[in-house]
Amino acid sequence: MTRAFASVFPTDFLEPWKLSDVVLVVEDQKFHVHRSILAFWSPVFERMFTSEFKEKNNDEIPLPGKKESEIKHLLLMLYPSLEEKQVTKRNCYYLFELAHEYQIDSIARKCEALMVTMVKQRIENDVLAMLIYGQKYHLKTLISTCIYEARRLKSVELDVYNRHDEIEPDNYLKIVKGIIQRLETQCREVRRGSLKSLERVSQSLYVHAKVKNNEPIPSFSRRPYKNDIVMSRTIGERLDYLLNDDDKSSGNVQCMNLKSVAEELIAHKETIETLP
């Protein structure tokens, strides 16, 4: 290399600088870099420069199939003296693939960490595509995160997914189990909430029936129904009491009598109790 150093800290690597001793050729663009820096970060480049590869003593090393902009971004991350470049949604995939190929573990880990964050925060909506990507490169953290987040899917969404066959069987089974567990949890919450509502309604109707039938009701404190005969009754006992109410004296046809209401509530109670 006979040209004078262009600058101390270049941002484009287009000129020789600071004892740069090798040139990477990408899409007819030449990047002036250092063998020692590349070898420090990448075992692939280290072997290239120290073993009996044809590139060992070459001043120029072509990187066929690579994109100029992507290699430049990778170099900007490898040189700590330059402005540090961040891994973003836009660049993390090609940076990861370059880091994977050249075994630059630190950059690969940064890229995977961002992918995991994007899945957790639902920045990447296609969680199954992310799972398939993780499977391709055996990214355990990304795979486990995608499986966990895929529990929010509906089973039909999983069945009709256009890359359904690319999901590994074990991972597919874990997703299905996760969906079932999520639904069971939701059912338990619905069951618990519905029974609480039914508890309150049956209490109110039970007291209403007692008053209507001129039956004695204990006097209530500031906490009505607490520790008295109303609270001591189960939902079923209160509804059974209402079933015996045959009062049809009300001429308002828009108002159901208590027996009819009880029949409706018993049917709802039976449905609720079928939930897991």
How would you describe this protein?
- Residues 20-79 form the BTB domain.
- It holds the Pfam family BTB.
- This is BTB domain-containing protein.
- InterPro entries: BTB/POZ_dom, SKP1/BTB/POZ_sf.
- The chain has 276 residues and is mainly alpha-helical.
- Helix content is 54%, strand content 5%.
- It has helices at residues 35-41, 43-50, 68-78, 92-101, 105-120, 127-137, 140-149, 155-159, 169-212, 229-232, 235-243, 258-272; strands at 22-26, 29-33, 60-62.
- Strand 1 and strand 2 (29-33) form a beta hairpin.
- The relative contact order is 0.06.
- Residues 1-7, 220-228 and 248-254 have low confidence and may be disordered.
Concise overview:
This protein is mainly α. Helix content is 54%, strand content 5%.
What's the β-strand tally? Answer: 3
Mean pLDDT rating: 84
Which overall shape is indicated by the principal axes computed on the Cα atoms? rod-shaped
Radius of gyration: 35 Å
Low-confidence stretches: 1-7, 220-228, 248-254
Question: Can you count the helices?
Answer: 12
Largest sheet: 3 strands, mixed
SS content category: mainly alpha
In terms of quaternary structure, what is this?
single chain
Side-by-side strand order of the widest sheet: 2-1-3
**What percentage of the residues does DSSP assign to strands (E)?**
under 5%
H and E string: EEHHEHHHHHHHHHH
User: Portion of residues in helices?
Assistant: 40-55%
Q: State the distance separating the first and last CA atoms.
A: 76 Å
